[in-house]
Backbone:
């Protein structure tokens, strides 16, 4: 039946009331355990660098606390519907700010951003700990059997105005509570669109969504009725932004209440049932003692099989139905039609039982029931490779011990430890006071190409979304292509991808977004790489906008009298401009391949085998002939864009010059011994940027290690495409604050005797053994009735890999019908020859339509991690979805061992 079928209006909807009331009595008291779980079940939180004393950082934290939409830039690979109807005018409607239809006890500000991946592996935590999850969880659980949904969402749907770059359309927005689903459709059409509550990545409303509203040129008068919802579109494997205007402020409050309320409710139920019911005896004790009586409203005495299957489905327990049915019947008494609380407790215990964990526990304890302190110290030092002194080991041991005297661990205690922050899978790179005090040229700098694009290079949309996403993930070099505003020459310039099929956005909107999000993930300098294609008059406006919007944070003069590049530490919370020189050294020169050309007519494309057709009717434009005015050029204090002609010319020796090369030009140099040595030598002292070919029409990426290995500081990738190149880019900079110190041999001059043998530096033999044990909470593929997962393991970046004879190579076996806790116990072992700085482990989880053979597979999640960042021993690693977003509960459990050998 269609979600828009006429249903009986019921203002008070009870979520599967036959089961929810029962679970309320079972789960409510478990919320008391959440605080302990919060402290001990956070395996992926990254460390904080000691920058809390910075006054600018304090301002940033204060801003985030007051305007939590700063955490929202988890919005990526954005895509709008391809609807081409006529526009509808915006109707202000009658403003009515009453709170009717919204429960009194839940009238609170709901425009808070909901971020699932708060504990992102590798992305720096900026210091506002758990502000999302410190909401009143107990309140949500108590109300889960009586969540109130305004009747308009259950009957005809709320009338809203949907805004996109193409048009404005009237839509009806409904709620499907039984499936935790939102459904909307255009009023004049029958086709519906839907997304699950679990798909939501962020919610912003009113003034917190101004960047989105201003991007579409919508008047400020609609600010109080605006909401932006970012969710994952499974059909297109992209994140989608849904921008809506409510008819009244009252309608917006209802909409916020429903969307955010369902989101909180589902998260809390999932987490409580699947994480916090481990101590079920404590739950029962609390309930029996009467502590939960005040919140229980006519609890159901039994749960049917149907109830259990429905809740398992809604909570993404992706296990074969026959398996769940078998568990259900195994705990049900023969003379009953359902299961009571005691039996439900046994059902959950069986569901949570880890067949992968118990054998490891028995091996570690040598068959004993308990693990004692001396056993724990032996485990963490010899297997986990941690350096704990006796005091720290004792403190951690006591913290996780469930025994009254804290003298021993049970299996559950050991499991809790493995899930905690004390078992973080990543090595915390040593960043002492000197780490960020080297010149800029000695760092790799996290960089983005075509940052403004959220789609393909030729036909993708330009949006501030791209800048928000990149900055949220720590990007430190952004590209801004600036053009004349053709529709109004007197207006501010626009940011666009040239004369292609992309829309433009206003430069002020871009700069405001950059200023707001620049230092959320890192305090270190942001480089604005300007590509100027506008008139002299427009360039003056560019200078004025940079100065007015960025203010004192914009570096407009040298910070000292030295003719050397400053270090990142001295440039905290500052913006650097990369822009071409106003006066070139010569109007005629040689291009990167050595051919004599005119600098004003060099074609702006390069060869690539990616998505290129010689029969393409798309004509690539030539570079703009606009000269850069002195006023704008003077802003390139430390990053002065200079056209490459030759490494021996005077402009190649100025301390602040920066060459930008296409991948074709860089590849040409790397292939030639003499040019490669000159390239390596240049990059030890001076800046360089390499960017993808313009003929990568689908915005695919190159392999960035090819250029990192030659010291290129700014290797710019297309962030809108989460392919192998971008995965490597994000993994390489994980936890780095956007600046990674280059290896010693790429920062200091080589001896002449070894100048031609740069390959001997950094090359090592690395012996590794990776045991893929299991996975947890894998998402089911879209439009698939079952999940049959298997894993493919790859070593990326090695010169060679020699696998052990007994090693698994390629894919693991398929585990039929189990995404909840599939077990493989597959070992990948061998010896790789590589520079460990540039060697990565890639794990891809696929699902096959067949339960026995690999057939019609679909990639469902990935992990890519730098070898040198992996800790030893048993670790849980988080997984990303196909768009690069963290899957909240999905992990890979594996044992890691690696070392360098002679």
Residues:
């Amino acid at each position: 039946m269609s979600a828009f079928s006429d249903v009986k209006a019921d203002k008070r909807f009870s979520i599967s009331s036959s089961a929810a009331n029962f679970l309320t009595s079972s789960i409510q008291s478990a919320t008391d355990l959440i605080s302990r779980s919060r402290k001990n079940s956070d395996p992926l939180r990254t460390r904080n660098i000691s920058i809390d004393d910075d006054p600018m950082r304090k301002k940033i934290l204060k801003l985030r606390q007051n305007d939590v939409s700063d955490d929202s830039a988890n919005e990526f690979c954005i895509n709008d519907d391809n609807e081409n109807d006529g526009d509808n005018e915006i109707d202000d409607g009658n403003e009515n700010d009453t709170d009717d239809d919204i429960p009194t006890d839940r009238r609170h500000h709901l425009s808070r951003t909901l971020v699932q991946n708060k504990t992102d592996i590798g992305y720096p935590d900026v210091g506002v700990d758990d502000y999302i999850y410190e909401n009143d969880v107990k309140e949500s659980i108590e109300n889960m059997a009586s969540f109130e949904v305004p009747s308009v969402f259950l009957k005809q749907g709320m009338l809203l105005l949907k805004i996109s770059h193409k048009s404005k359309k009237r839509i009806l927005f409904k709620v499907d509570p039984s499936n935790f689903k939102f459904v909307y459709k255009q009023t004049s059409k029958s086709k519906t669109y839907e997304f699950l509550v679990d798909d939501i990545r962020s919610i912003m409303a009113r003034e917190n969504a101004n960047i989105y509203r201003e991007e579409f040129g919508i008047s400020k008068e609609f600010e109080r009725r605006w909401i932006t919802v970012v969710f994952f579109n499974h059909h297109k494997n992209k994140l989608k932004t849904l921008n809506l205007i409510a008819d009244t402020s009252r309608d917006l409050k209802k909409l916020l209440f429903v969307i955010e309320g369902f989101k909180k409710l589902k998260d809390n139920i999932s987490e409580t049932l699947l994480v916090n019911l481990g101590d079920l005896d404590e739950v029962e004790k609390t309930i029996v003692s009467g502590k939960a009586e005040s919140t229980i409203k006519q609890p159901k005495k039994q749960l049917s099989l149907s109830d259990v299957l429905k809740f398992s489905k809604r909570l993404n327990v992706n296990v074969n139905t026959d398996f769940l049915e078998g568990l259900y019947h195994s705990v049900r008494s023969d003379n009953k039609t359902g299961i009571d609380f005691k039996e439900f407790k046994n059902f959950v215990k069986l569901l949570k039982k880890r067949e992968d964990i118990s054998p490891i526990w028995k091996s570690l304890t040598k068959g004993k029931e308990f693990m004692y302190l001396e056993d724990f110290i032996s485990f963490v030092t010899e297997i986990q490779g941690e350096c704990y002194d006796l005091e720290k080991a004792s403190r951690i041991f006591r913290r996780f011990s469930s025994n009254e005297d804290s003298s021993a661990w049970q299996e559950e205690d050991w499991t809790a430890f493995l899930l905690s922050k004390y078992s973080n899978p990543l090595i915390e790179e040593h960043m002492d006071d000197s780490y960020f005090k080297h010149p800029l040229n000695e760092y790799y700098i996290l960089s983005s190409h075509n940052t403004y694009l959220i789609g393909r290079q030729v036909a993708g949309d330009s949006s501030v979304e791209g800048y928000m996403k990149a900055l949220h993930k720590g990007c430190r070099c952004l590209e801004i292509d600036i053009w004349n505003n053709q529709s109004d020459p007197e207006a501010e310039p626009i940011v666009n991808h040239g004369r292609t099929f992309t829309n433009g956005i206003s430069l002020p909107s871009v700069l405001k977004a950059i200023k707001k999000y620049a230092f959320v993930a890192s305090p270190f300098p942001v480089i604005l790489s300007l590509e100027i294609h506008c008139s002299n008059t427009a360039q003056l406006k560019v200078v004025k906008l940079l100065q007015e919007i960025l203010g004192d944070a914009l570096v407009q003069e040298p910070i000292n009298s030295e003719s050397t590049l400053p270090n990142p530490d001295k440039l905290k919370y500052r913006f650097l401009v990369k822009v071409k020189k106003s006066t070139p050294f010569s109007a005629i020169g040689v291009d990167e391949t050595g051919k004599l050309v005119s600098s004003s007519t060099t074609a702006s494309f390069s060869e690539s085998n990616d998505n290129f057709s010689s029969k393409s009717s798309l004509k690539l434009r030539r570079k703009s002939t606009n000269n850069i005015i002195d006023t704008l050029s003077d802003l390139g204090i430390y990053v002065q864009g200079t056209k490459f002609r030759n490494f021996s010319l005077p402009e190649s020796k100025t301390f602040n010059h920066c060459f930008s090369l296409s991948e074709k030009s860089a590849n040409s140099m790397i292939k030639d011994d003499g040019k490669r040595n000159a390239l390596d030598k240049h990059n030890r002292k001076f800046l360089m940027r390499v960017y993808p070919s313009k003929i990568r029409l689908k915005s695919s990426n190159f392999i960035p290690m090819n250029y990192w290995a030659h010291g290129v500081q700014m290797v710019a990738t297309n962030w809108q495409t989460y392919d192998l190149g971008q995965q490597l880019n994000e993994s390489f900079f994980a936890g780095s604050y956007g600046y990674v110190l280059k290896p010693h041999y790429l920062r200091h001059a080589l001896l002449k005797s070894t100048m031609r043998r740069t390959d001997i530096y950094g090359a090592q033999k690395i012996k590794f053994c990776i045991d893929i044990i299991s996975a947890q909470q894998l998402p089911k593929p879209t439009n698939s009735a079952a999940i049959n997962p298997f894993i493919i393991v790859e070593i990326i970046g090695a010169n060679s890999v020699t696998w052990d004879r007994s090693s698994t190579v390629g894919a693991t076996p398929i585990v039929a019908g189990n995404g909840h806790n599939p077990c493989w116990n597959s070992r990948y072992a061998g010896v790789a020859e590589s520079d460990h700085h540039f060697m990565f482990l890639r794990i891809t989880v696929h699902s096959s339509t067949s339960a026995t053979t690999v057939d019609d597979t679909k990639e469902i999640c990935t992990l890519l991690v730098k070898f040198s960042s992996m800790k030893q021993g048993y670790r849980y690693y988080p997984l990303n979805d196909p768009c690069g977003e963290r899957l909240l509960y999905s992990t890979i459990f594996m044992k890691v061992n690696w070392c360098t050998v002679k």
